[in-house]
Amino acid sequence: MAINYPTSTDTLTNPLLTDTQDSPSHSGQHSDANDILEALEAKVGVNSSAVTSSLDYKVENTLLPLAGGTMTGDILGAVSLASTGTRMTKAWLENLEVTNDITIGGTALASIYSPLAGSSSITTVGTIGTGNWEGTAINQTYLVGQSGTNTGDEIVASGAELDTGTDDVKYASAKAIKDSHNVPSVAPSTDGKVMTSNGTDWISETPATVPVKASASDLNTGTDDAKFATAKAINDSQGNIRWLVFNLVEAGTDCAVASNIAGDFVSPIAGTILQSDSTPFYLYATNSTAGTTGTMVVDVSIGGTSIMTTNKIDIDTTEKTSTTGATQPDLTTTALAVGDIITIDIDAIHTTAAKGLTLYMAIRE
Fold first, then answer.
1. Is the separation of the CB atoms in 202 and 183 below 8 Å?
2. Which of 10, 136, 238, 295 has the most CB atoms within 10 Å of its CB?
3. What is the pLDDT of residues 187-242, one digit of tens each?
4. pLDDT tens digit string along 68-98?
5. Residue 359: beta bridge partners?
């Protein structure tokens, strides 16, 4: 639609979640919004705009109305107001400086409305409501006994008086607060010591029990009830490990060389695939009946690419698990994401094939 601004404001339609992109028109809404933005830019104008209808030009150049008449005379001399209306530019007002007394009907403005900013004295009885007093110190004679004012007879409380806490007149200085027993003033000493009170002062001493961090191994054992667990120890412990178990070949069925046996598996978790030659029960395979002669080789792929080098999951002759294999797998990647496709191949089998195949994969989240 054609927009109305700046002649009048526009009424725009906000689409609902159930609306299609053609009702209201998605492209039409973008077009209307662009037209409105361009009209606003034209209305406001750029910096130092030369367009006389723009707000920027009017603010910088239009004369401002001065009620009461025209202004005449030199800026440094007397100024009078005539009977007709006049205007002063914003630039003129910004550079206006009053160097002589301002009079109204021949009477100095300062004698009517005193004090004015910059006045050297207060000539009219009144109250200083706001601002900072920067003149000569006011004589105490004029302040004593005045409610809400500085009486000049305040007394500083000592640290001991702050400890007592019964004096409601004296004020506390920073030093008094530091000297009081409400704030410890013991200098740091040996690392690991704690602040304790002996009833009179604060002292630094070795704590009765020093907290000790638990290791991941301590968490795995789970028998120590004194040590505390850190985030790293929890992350490194077996408590942060989840297992993916793949039942690939039935227990009574011979294993055979094949690709993508049992189909694609979609990972439900993300983390790091674990493997350790010294702790082989992270990534391993088992048979229900051992094969004989030769070596059974199992490979694992993520997204169609093997995660191992030439050293894969090997089950040696007469063995039912790869954890006893002479060669343990070496991983080329350990990253697993939610949704990754995992496939498993049997690259080689024993002369007398093993029966059944299950693969285990440990993931640290």
1. no
2. 295
3. 666 666 777 777 777 777 777 777 788 888 887 788 888 888 888 887 777 778 89
4. 444 444 444 444 444 444 455 555 445 555 5
5. 246, 285
